[in-house]
Each structure stands twice: as C-alpha cells, then as structure tokens.
TrEMBL record:
Enzyme class: oxidoreductase
Gene source species: Virgibacillus xinjiangensis
Matches recorded under SUPFAM superfamilies: ALDH-like
Gene3D superfamilies: Aldehyde Dehydrogenase, Chain A, domain 1 (3.40.605.10), Aldehyde Dehydrogenase, Chain A, domain 2 (3.40.309.10)
Protein name: aldehyde dehydrogenase (NAD(+))
Active-site residues per Swiss-Prot or TrEMBL entry: E253
Subunit structure: Homotetramer.
Origin organism lineage: Bacteria, Bacillati, Bacillota, Bacilli, Bacillales
Similarity section: Belongs to the aldehyde dehydrogenase family.
Keywords on record: NAD, Oxidoreductase
Domain Aldehyde dehydrogenase: 20-482
E.C. numbers: 1.2.1.3
PANTHER family (alphabetical): ALPHA-AMINOADIPIC SEMIALDEHYDE DEHYDROGENASE
Length: 498
C-alpha cells in the first residue's frame, strides 16, 4: 500500500555534525496499523550539555557568515526537500498517520518555509532612524540571540520544525532541537538534509528523548537563551514559568478551540465543506482544527442534515491508501481522551448525531481509529465546547445573532483560529475585527494557514509570539540600537539639543 523502507533501522542523535548512537530506546508505532516501525533514542541530560557546547562554538562562526550566504544553505535545504517530497510524505504518513494528501501538504509547507526564509537572508530588515543630534547616525538591527532550543510536536513533525529552525538559522543562531518521540523520522530526515545541504556542524543538533529529561535539560541550560515550544497547555505553562525565572526568551503555541460561525445568509454547502475539512482533516489533531460550529438557529436543522449526509462519504483508514480521507489517531491515549469527551458531552446534555465511538473492527487493522463525531444542541459553556479534544469531534452551538456568535467564539480560554461563513460584507468586517483569535478566515474553515503569515493566537493559545511569517524572527533575534557619532566631538543626547 505504498509503505517505504526507512533506509535505516537506527535513529541516532545528530550532535556537532556526528551521528551518535544512544543505548536506551523506545518503540515508534505506525498509528494506522499498531506496528512498530523504528526505535527512537531516549537521550540523557548529558546529550543536551554536549549539544550546547558544540552549538555555542559553531554559532560564534555562523554569526560572522553574511546572512545571504547563510541563506544559501536554506535554499539547498529547500531543493533537497523538494526532491524528496514523496519519500518524506510517505514516511510522515507512516509515523503520524495523516493521510498522504495532507502529508504532502505538510512537507510542502516546509519547502515553502525554506525558500521564504532563505529570502530573508537578503532582508532581515532593521530601521535607519534620524538621530537627535547633528552628524550622528542611528539604526536598529536584528542580532542573533545565540543558542536556541526548539521543542516540536507530533501533529506537524516537519512543518513546525521548519517554522522554528529556519528563521533561527538564517538569523545566525545555532539550534538544539528536541522532536516529539512519537514522530522522530521527520527529524532524522531533516537532519540528514541539513547535513547534505552543507550546514556547518553544530548549527543544528537533534537530541531525541523525553520532554521530562531532554526538554527539561534544555529549559534549564543557562546557555540556551530561547525556547520555542509547540505542544500542550500544561507543559507550555511550566516552560514559561521556568523561562521567566531565568529571563529566557520563550515562544509558546499551545492549542485552540476553534469555531466556524455559520450565519443565516451563508452558502451552506460551502460551509459544510469547510467544516468537514477543518474538523476531520488530520482526524481533528490540529491546533487549528474546527471543534465548534456556532450556527444561526434559522439554518441549524438544514446544516445538521447537510453535515450528516456529507460525513457519510468520509472514508476512514490507513492514510497510505489514497482512497482514505481520514486517518488514525496518534495512539491509544489519544483515543481514550477523545472517548472520555464523548461521555462528557452526553452527560452535559448535548445530542450525539453521529460517531462517538472508536473503530475496533477489522477495518482498523490494529490501528487507532475514531469515527468522525457530530454533537448538536451544545451550549457555549459545556466542556465539549470549551476544552481542546484533539480528535474528530465537532459540536454545534445554536445562536440568534452575529453578536451572540462572536461572544460565544471569544468565551473560551484559547484564541488561535476562527472562521465565519456569510455573504454580508458588513458582517465580514465586523467579524474580522471582533473575533479574538490570531487567525481569522472568511468563507473557509479554520485550518490552512500559509507560511508567510504569522501563526499563533491570543489568550491561552500562547504568549504573544508568532511562528512562521517574518514575525517568527522576533523570538530568535535581539534588537540592537546602534549610534554612530561622526561629529568629532562629544555630543550629549537630550542635553546638547537646541
Ligand atoms: C497545527 O495545528 O499545529 O493551518 C499547525 C494549518 C496548518 C498548520 C497547523 N497549516 O492548519
């Protein structure tokens, strides 16, 4: 069915340009079949210390390489990713489960990010600014922070790594990268690409292992000056606390409870397509996944019927089979969490219209599958309407007006993505202003962010930083103000002005 050979049965850490074997390992399982595909190293804290030592040394040289030359490496990375797109996509489907079409899309995000950030090598814009005093020049420019740590999740194992590592590299930093243990193959493949592209040794160091060991060692290491993290709310808040104490820069992206608003004037067929794609794509395991539909009561019944009809056409199974539209859940724990929310929803009084169970029949082939699920008559405050489920579960919440819809959208603790389906231009502009999320879509679902725009959210989604877009450079750079006085005499700011 299109499974491909890994070409290695040994994943190793990549430290200072060397592949280092680690004794302790744990199994990586293909979520579509439950079969072990490879063993991932579980490094100890010493591996982080070694990686940081190498990174510090390498960064001193790297920062002196002109940014357009640093960018040349990223162009090479982009070409190699493009050449290997199909291989990477298939491996991604095997380790993560997302269907091949989506895996190809994710790898494409990485390729786009390579060329986009390579372009930044010739920009990295600062500002020239008039100085207060005569014969004095003032400017502000971006300077690399030094050694940065990136901690990436299993749901987008390659795209999110590129959102973080590429801006860090082009800006002149060295990177310590801890990928999720569920999806190490993308990290291994990307490390090989960095190596082949000619990235100097020590600029990217991959240390596989657990968050409680490797991640914790990174957060505590005094020479890692930035932590960029995407993952769970609880872990992110702990990282933020520790980084705060150490005055370390930190960028957090911790999920969403994203809603599609369907107004009474919406194109309902289009809304159904948008909801299905963003709620059930990646089996709902996206930070941007739609898990609430806030619907005008006048079109609620109609929308329910159309959604139910279209949901019947969703084919579920191994993502390597291109006939399948919905793949598996990452693992057993993920399945159990989703199942627990079905019980919660029922107890809270929402009405289950479809799905609500895992698929343990023959079709599941030993993998972890959950039926696309639709609740209706949910209220904005129910737990199924406010907590992140990370699965193919969507709840309809009826409302009477746009104001009520926006209020329901904004009531949750997260603020990543939102969407509105309407044909009324006034409603479009009101919604894009009032929806309290970092990303707003009009007449499209809640997923599908493009890499040259800032990705991130308000409130509990993060801490104000953004991945991708030129804004991704902010956390990996310090602003340096430079004053050059060419008057030949001491000129005192604020004092020697007329
Ligand atoms: C995520 O869910 O963590 O916008 C990333 C999207 C994708 C990225 C999602 N481009 O849905």
């Amino acid at each position: 069915m299109g499974a491909i050979a890994l070409e290695t049965d040994r994943l190793a850490n990549f430290i200072n340009g060397e592949w280092q074997e680690v004794q302790q390992k744990t199994a990586v399982v293909n979520p579509a079949t439950g079969e072990e595909i490879v063993q991932v190293p579980l490094s100890d804290r010493a591996a982080v210390v070694e990686a940081v030592r190498a990174a510090k040394k390498a960064q001193k040289e790297w920062t002196l390489v002109p940014a357009p030359q640093r960018a040349e490496v990223l162009y090479q990375v982009g070409y190699l990713m493009k050449e290997r797109k199909e291989r990477l996509s298939r491996l991604l489907t095997m380790e993560n489960g997302k269907v091949l079409e989506e895996a190809r899309g994710e790898v494409q995000e990485g390729i786009d990010m390579a060329f986009y950030m390579a372009g930044e090598g010739r920009r990295l814009f600062g500002h020239t600014t008039p100085a207060e005093l005569k014969d004095k020049f003032a400017m502000s420019q971006r300077a690399p922070v030094g050694v940065v740590g990136i901690i990436t999740p299993w749901n987008f194992p390659i795209a999110i790594a590129t959102w973080k590592s590429f801006p860090a590299i082009v800006a002149g930093n060295a990177v310590i990268w801890k990928p999720a243990t569920e999806t190490p193959i993308m990290a291994y493949e990307l490390a090989k690409i960095f190596e082949e592209a000619g990235l100097p040794k020590g600029i990217v160091n991959v240390v596989f292992g657990k968050g409680s060991v490797v991640g914790d060692a990174m957060v505590h290491h005094p020479d890692i000056r930035v932590i960029s993290f995407t993952g769970s709310n609880e872990t992110g808040r702990n990282i933020a606390g520790e980084c705060g104490r150490q005055l370390k820069k930190v960028s957090l992206e911790m999920g969403g409870k994203n809603a599609v608003i369907v107004m009474d004037d919406a194109d309902l067929d289009l809304a159904v397509d948008g909801i299905l794609w963003s709620a059930f794509g990646t089996s709902g395991q996206r930070c941007t996944a739609c898990s609430r539909v806030i619907v005008h009561e006048k079109v609620k019944k109609d929308l329910e019927q159309r959604l139910l009809a279209k949901m019947k056409t969703l084919t579920i199974g191994d993502g390597l089979d291109e006939a399948n539209k919905v793949g598996p859940i990452i693992n057993q724990a993920g399945l159990e969490k989703i199942a627990s929310y079905i019980d919660i929803g029922k107890k809270e009084g929402a009405k289950l219209l479809a799905g609500g169970h895992s698929l343990e029949s023959e079709a599941s082939q030993g993998g972890y599958y959950f039926a696309p699920t639709l609740f209706t008559d949910a209220t904005p405050d129910m737990r199924i309407s406010t907590e992140e489920i990370f699965g193919p579960v969507v709840s309809l919440i009826p409302v009477k007006s746009l104001e009520e819809a926006i209020e329901a959208n904004n009531r949750v603790e997260y603020g990543l993505s939102s969407s509105i389906f309407t044909r009324d231009v006034n409603r479009v502009f009101q919604a894009q202003r009032d929806l309290d999320t970092g990303i707003v879509y009009v007449n499209a679902g809640t997923t599908g962010a493009e890499i040259h725009l800032p990705f991130g959210g308000t409130k509990g989604t993060g801490n104000g930083h953004r991945d991708s877009g030129v804004q991704a450079l902010d956390v990996f750079t310090e602003w340096k103000a430079v004053y050059v006085d060419y008057s030949g005499k001491l000129q005192r700011a604020q004092i020697d002005v007329e």
